[in-house]
Amino acid sequence: MTLRMEEICEVRPPLSGELQSRADRTPWTEKRRQFIVYRGDDQVGFLSFDLGFEEGLVIYELFVGERHGRQGIGTAMLLEAEKIALSLGYAQLVLRPEVLNGRLSGEELTCFYLKREFRRSATYEGLLEKSLIDLDCSGEIRYGQSRRFCSHGLIERMERA
Question: What span, in angstroms and rounded, lies between the C-alpha atoms of 140 and 77?
Answer without folding.
Answer: 28
